[in-house]
Amino acid sequence: MFYPDLSTECQVDRGEHIRAIGWLSMDQPFPTGSVPPEFLAVLKSHIETAWQPVLMMGLHCCEFCPKPKPREGRIGGSCNLWIPAESVVYVTPELVAHYVEVHGYQPPEEFIAAVLACPEQNSPAFHELLSRFPQWWKT
Q1: Which of 29, 116, 132, 134 is least enclosed by beta carbons within 10 angstroms?
Q2: Is 39 part of any domain?
Q3: Parallel, antiparallel, or unpaired: how do β-strands 76-77 and 60-61 relate?
Q4: Would you write out the chain's pLDDT as a tens digit for each of its 139 residues?
Q5: Which domain holds residue 129?
Q6: 57 vs 49: CA distance, rounded Å
Q7: Which residues contact 3 (CB under 8 A, 6 or more apart)?
Q8: Burial category of 72 from C-beta neighbours within 10 Å (exposed 0-12, middle 13-18, buried 19 and up)
Q9: Which secondary structure element, helix H or strand E, spans residue 83, and what is its range?
Q10: 86-96 as b/e: b if 16+ CB within 10 A
Q11: How far is 103 from 6, CA to CA, in rounded Å?
């Protein structure tokens, strides 16, 4: 499901404080380019331990990869990632790391900076940042 980068809604969250990142589609062009070398490792670390207020049932597969041969797995994911920053929360599907690494997707600079600055998922500092924003998952 496509949402433009930095829009205020995506499949799993919405609001003036939300910024969608990496909700890509075959039908829409996306920016490509390089990212800082440390970005991908930090992004993957956040994805591996992602805080999940919403669980999705089913797998979203990469639309950009060719269809695999029989018995080969498809690249996909069902998790999402929340990256709180000072004034917004970035929300992205876990496939964002694959999009960056394999398809050359270049997220907005502000997202890259937020990922690099974000405390570990589920840490007290992470939850402190999140507490500045509406917490629909607690209602």
Answers
A1: 29
A2: yes
A3: antiparallel
A4: 899 999 999 999 999 999 999 999 999 999 999 999 899 999 999 999 999 888 776 778 888 988 765 556 667 788 999 999 999 999 999 999 999 999 999 999 999 999 999 999 999 999 999 999 988 777 6
A5: 18-138
A6: 18
A7: 9, 10, 11, 20, 23
A8: exposed
A9: strand 80-84
A10: eebbbbbbbbb
A11: 20
Contact 51, 126 (CB under 8 A): yes
SS3 content of the chain, % helix, strand, coil (to 5): 30, 15, 55
Report yes or no on 10 lying in a domain. no
Rounded to 5 degrees, φ, ψ at 82 are -105, 125
Q: Is 66 inside a domain boundary?
A: yes
Number of domains in the chain: 1
Phi-psi region of 110 (alpha: psi -120 to 50; beta: other; left: phi over 0): alpha
| Residue whose structure tokens are 């500045």 | 132
In the structure encoding, which two tokens stand for residue 53, read together? 């207020």
Give 33-71 as a DSSP string: ----HHHHHHHHHHHHT---SS--SS-EEPSSSPPPPTT
